[in-house]
Amino acid sequence: MSFTLPPLPFEKSALEPHISANTLNFHYDKHHQAYVTNLNKLTEGTPLSSKSLEEVILESANNSERVGIFNNAAQVWNHTFYWNCLSPTGGGEPMSDVLALIERDFGSFEVFQEQFKNMAVSQFGSGWAWLVFDKGALKITKTSNADLPLAHGQVALLTCDVWEHAYYLDFQNRRPDYVDTFLKHLVNWEFVAKTLQKA
């Protein structure tokens, strides 16, 4: 068994003008594929090669001898999750059930947007901003590099990739504009709702 690159849930040009096909040519075809390739090399011939991606992540998290395995496995998971968080018809307010929880835990959708943006913009260096379900409540968090909520007992509902390769070709150094665009035009709230139901 080997790990494979999952297909994108949309055409590469589908997110334009917000995220270009050129960005996806690098982000998906080069970066995401490299994590898959490296993970297969690192786990080949080991018991981890027959485990699920989530099992590999949990078994390698906080293990100094498996840092490379964790980083690549987590980045495969993170990117696959990120693609599903994007939609050509996304952005704006979520459907009523998700909106009700956001209003319950953040006070208003506007406060949620502000806090999520601040978390994404304030992540120093490479990483991710997340909306998670943790102990019965929605929370906003951020992780560095490949780290992810799964390794901390949280359920990821939404993520914004703030590694520079996610946005630099389209937004250069304007990370706040990229995060604004993500929230206003790209968030796949249907995916968030389905993930929340499973949680």
TrEMBL record:
Mn(2+) binds at H27, H79, D161, H165. Residues 96-194 form the Manganese/iron superoxide dismutase C-terminal domain. InterPro entries: Mn/Fe_SOD, Mn/Fe_SOD_BS, Mn/Fe_SOD_C, Mn/Fe_SOD_N, Mn/Fe_SOD_N_sf, SOD_C_sf. One of its GO terms (molecular function) is superoxide dismutase activity. Residues 2-87 form the Manganese/iron superoxide dismutase N-terminal domain. The keyword Oxidoreductase applies. It catalyses: 2 superoxide + 2 H(+) = H2O2 + O2. Its EC number is 1.15.1.1. Keywords: Iron, Metal-binding, Oxidoreductase. It comes from the Bacteria. Signal peptide: none annotated. Destroys radicals which are normally produced within the cells and which are toxic to biological systems. PANTHER family: SUPEROXIDE DISMUTASE, SUPEROXIDE DISMUTASE [FE] 2, CHLOROPLASTIC. Belongs to the iron/manganese superoxide dismutase family. This is Superoxide dismutase. It comes from Candidatus Nucleicultrix amoebiphila FS5.
